[in-house]
Amino acid sequence: MKAKKIAVIGAGVSGLGAIKCCLEEGLEPVCFEQRNDIGGLWRYEETPESGCASIYKSLFCNTSKEMTAFSDYPFPDHYPNYLHNSKIMEYLRMYARHFGLMKHIQFLSKVCTVRKRLDFSTSGQWDVVVETDGKQKTHVFDGIMICSGHYTAKYLPLQDFAGIQKFKGRYLHSWEYKHADDFVGKRVVVIGIGNSGADVASEIGHVAEQVFISTKRGTWIWTRVWDNGNPMDVTLFTRYNSTVQKFWPTFLINRWAENKLNARFNHANYGLQPKHRFLSHQATFGDDLANHIITGRVLIKPNVKEFTATSAIFEDGTEESIDAVVFATGYKLSFPFLEDDSAILDSQRSMFKFVFPPQLKKPTLAFIGIIQPIGATIPISEMQSRWVVRVFKGLKKLPSEHDMMADITRKRKQLAKTFVESPRDASRVQYIDYMDEIASELGVKPNLLSLLFWDAKLAKEIFYGPCTAYQYRLQGPGKWGGAREAILTQRNRILKPLRTRVFTPSGPPSSRLFWVKCICAVIFLSIPILLIIQMIHH
Ligand SMILES: *C1O[C@H](CO)[C@@H](O)[C@H](O)[C@H]1NC(C)=O
Ligand SMILES: *[C@@H]1O[C@H](CO)[C@@H](O)[C@H](O)[C@H]1NC(C)=O
User: Fold this and answer.
1) d(CA 459, CA 452)
2) Cα-flanking dihedrals φ and ψ of residue 497, to 5°?
3) Of 72, 166, 189, 398, which is most buried with the most CB atoms under 10 A?
């Protein structure tokens, strides 16, 4: 039988993983990439291109390298734990080269439409119209993997900001923000305190005259650097923790987390205290933010009520004169190439496990990486792709439409209970839970019980150590011979880039010296006492 042809839309982290998974299962992938390079979101460009993701120059990944890596391709051990976008690009190039992905990518090729073929109900095939060099061409595919990401269409709710048309200064979305040069000596308001808002405000804070962050909701601030200087995700995202959390009541976990974060700085005193509890909404990474607030370079403000020509008036009635506004208001989903966009997706919530639209007669279209994990995206996209290619091949069956809808409804209810109402929280998943869920579909979830008997050392690291993706390559389809080794050496790879100056204590350790001194003191002090006792006995 001829290998099935699969269209992969986008050559970012999700697309690269998708191509690799297709090849692994003997499918024939063709990846269409709008730009002339791989990397998607992670490829920094000086000028943003409409319809593409765009990042600022200083963007660092918010998940650490061990948690971020593809499941069969660890980062080099000397790489820092949190990677600059240029380093992620290096890694992606190595990955693409290692698995021979480049020859499957057609660059400067924009997918215009993806449409069901007339015989879709029997063939499950799609017509894909691709524009290259200004010329459009239609291709037929047996399956579609949409890997175009969810950071391409900026969400800019100008209608919520009265008077913004009158404002004489510059305003822009964080999508257009590249570096702080334009803001030297300026007074700037950043709207929103998500990860981009906090990053942009902190960066501008170094050079601006004054930065304000305006936030309706407030937020919990957590940091990349966690206890003992270990990466946050490595410490918190363990199977042990996830098991403990299943038994503990939510309010206790919330209290534990909030106390911990407040111990660093009191969120109420710093103007950041949100109404929602820690687990109900995405926390913001802000390693630098507290320093900026305590030195006054960044001030936290409530919502902007209205803009005048030269100032912002906040909901508490205060007014500040300003030169620029940065809207860090996030992104919305956009798949302009999908013909009946609304029928296939009302919102991401209507996908079966965030991947398959349940209404399709044939499961030949999948969304990869259109999800908001509390944890790294690369391994999640990769896991989705591994599942999808098995479904495309017919090795895995999806439940009936009715059962899929029931599952979706159930998940929606759970989400509504757990999270505050916000578009992004609609597709938020706990990293370990979601990975395990898809891994179980595939039969690649590590079997801890049998490991405990056969390989206790490994079982221990899998349970207590960071839940890295190598775990999902120990067994089942796509098993990788290097997985065990990768798991047992992950802590070395975390420490290697930090221990660049090895500490060698000189002389006897001070603690030993301390005890020697103590003993001397005791002997010295007891001599007169012994003498006195002797005298009394005489
Ligand atoms: C997770 O486990 C680590 C040690 O493995 C511990 O330091 C941390 O407090 C735990 N966190 C939660 C939320 O249970
Ligand atoms: C990292 O940042 C992205 C973009 O703001 C966010 O969607 C994701 O949830 C963040 N990761 C974690 C672990 O919070």
Assistant:
1) 5
2) -70, -10
3) 189
Q: Across residues 447-459, what is the average pLDDT?
A: 94
Ligand 1 nearest-atom number relative to CA 244: 14
Q: Report whether residue 374 contacts ligand 2, using a CB cutoff of 6 Å.
A: yes
Domain 5-152+333-494, CATH: 3.50.50.60
Report which protein residue has its CA nearest ligand 2's atom 7: 372
For residue 238 and ligand 1, the question of a CB distance below 6 A is answered with yes
Q: What is the mean pLDDT of residues 218-236?
A: 95
d(CA 400, CA 223): 43
Indicate the fold that domain 156-329 takes in CATH. Answer: FAD/NAD(P)-binding domain (3.50.50)
Q: Would the pLDDT of 492 be above 70?
A: yes
| For range 446-463, the mean pLDDT | 95
What does the alpha-carbon distance between residue 301 and residue 316 come to, in Å, rounded to a whole number? Answer: 8
Q: Whose CA is nearest to atom 4 of ligand 1?
A: 235
- Name the closest-CA residue to atom 8, ligand 1: 236
Between 339 and 55, residue with greater pLDDT: 55
Look at ligand 2, atom 10, and give the residue with the nearest C-alpha.
62
Closest CA to 267 of 220, 227, 301, 306: 220
For ligand 2, pick from 62, 154, 199 the residue to mutate: most ligand atoms within 8 Å of CB.
62
Sorted by where each begins, the domain ranges of the chain are 5-152+333-494, 156-329
Tens digits of per-residue pLDDT, 236-274?
999 999 999 999 999 999 999 999 999 999 999 999 999
Q: Is 238 in the pocket of ligand 2 (CB under 6 A)?
A: no
Q: Determine whether the shortest distance from the Cβ of 241 to ligand 1 is under 6 A.
A: yes
Report whether 145 contacts 388 (CB < 8 A): yes
| Cα gap 96→11, rounded to integer Å | 10
What gap in Å lies between CA 471 and CA 440, rounded to an integer?
Answer: 13
Evaluate: CB of 195 within 6 angstroms of ligand 2. Answer: yes
Smallest-distance ligand from the CA of 62: 2
Per-residue tokens: 400? 């009936």
The mean pLDDT value for 27-32 works out to: 98
Using the mean position of ligand 1's atoms as its centre, give its distance from the Cα of residue 466 in Å. 11
Ligand 2 atom closest to the Cα of residue 431 is 13
Distance CA(259)–CA(236), nearest Å, equals 15
pLDDT above 90: residue 10: yes
Query: What's phi and psi for 221, nearest 5 deg?
Result: -105, 120
Distances, alpha carbon 125 to alpha carbons 110, 368, 394, in Å: 20, 19, 14
5-152+333-494 against 156-329: fold identical: yes
Helices and strands: H and E segment counts in the chain:
18, 22
DSSP state for residue 181 in the 8-state scheme: G
Task: Please work out, in degrees rounded to the nearest 5, the angle formed at the alpha carbon of residue 354 by the alpha carbons of 122 and 401.
Answer: 40
Give dist(CA 246, CA 294) in Å, integer. Answer: 37
pTM of the model: 0.92
- Quick: pLDDT tens for 64-79: 999 999 999 999 999 9
Q: Are 64 and 9 in contact (CB under 8 A)?
A: no
Q: How far apart are CA 307 and CA 319, in angstroms?
A: 9
